Amino acid sequence: MTTILVPYHQDERLLDDEIPVAADITVRSPVLDGDAWRLVAGVCSATAAAVSPVVAAGGVPVVLSGDCMVAGGTVAGVQGAGVDPAVVWFDAHGDVHTLQTSTSGYLGGLSLRLLNGAHTERYADVIGLRPVSPERTVLVDARDLDPAEVEYLAGSETRRLPVSEVSADTVPPGPLVLHIDVDVIDSGEVPGLRYPASNGPSADAVLAACARLFATDRVVAFDVACPWLRTDDEGQRDIRTRLLSRLTALATR
């Protein structure tokens, strides 16, 4: 297992201890100025460059970042190593907005739709990503959806599953990039999230679903987004450290 830390929330450089994990590689974006799209593209391109050699050598990179936008860089890196993966996306939110449907302008709300090919001139084309088709995408949980996302998903070929139904038989065949936004876990278990969502699955249920996919030996990269706010509360920091320890341990089994 190779742990890759991407200490960014979109275009914001996080402090090193905000994602409490021991990293083998820490990504530094070469892009230091420009608009948010250019900065995000720099982070994702640097992530892809870190992921590709690990996958090419037969390893399973564990990529930890502060935002779901980085997942496109992880997938691009896997593709760059000659692997064509499907994507299993655990998230409390849909992340399937476009610039036209987003009411907040928050780029993280576009993350999965960008991965599927929206706004290619701003994202996929810039970071070297071949968009993953919706039919090769599974959206897990997504209990907190905006009306525009509900409408899109109703007509999309993106498969939707509850956490309990994730298994080798319910995800696409072939290699998988597994993406986990930690806010998929009920917010009562993970305090301090930027966009908390209650009434979600437990951490145990999410970890068990991930373990079922790892047991297939088809997971080629594990992407973990930690969109939480910085805290000095030792209790919260301990919860985060233990959660990331449990998640990263999945890739070593």
Commentary on this structure:
The protein is of the alpha/beta class. The protein has helices spanning 36-56, 70-80, 111-115, 124-127, 147-155, 203-214, 234-250; strands at 2-6, 8-9, 12-13, 25-26, 61-65, 86-93, 137-144, 159-161, 176-181, 219-225. It has a single domain (2-250), classed as Ureohydrolase domain (Arginase, Chain A, 3-Layer(aba) Sandwich). The strands form two sheets. The chain has an eight-stranded parallel β-sheet, sandwiched between helices. The chain has a two-stranded antiparallel sheet with strand order 2-3. α5 (147-155) links the parallel β7 and β8 (159-161). The longest helix is centred in the first third of the chain and has 21 residues, at 36-56. The protein is globular. Belongs to the arginase family. InterPro entries: Ureohydrolase (IPR006035), Ureohydrolase_dom_sf (IPR023696). This is Arginase.
The CATH topology is given as: Arginase, Chain A
CATH superfamily: Ureohydrolase domain
**Stretches where pLDDT falls below 50 for ≥5 residues?**
none
Compressed to H and E, one letter per element, the order equals EEEEHEHEHHEHEEHEH
**Helix/strand structural class:** alpha/beta
Helix percent band: 25-40%
Instruction: Just name the CATH architecture.
Output: 3-Layer(aba) Sandwich
Q: What's the average pLDDT?
A: 97
Number of helices: 7
State the separation between the terminal residues, measured CA to CA.
10 Å
- Tell me the major beta sheet: 8 strands, parallel
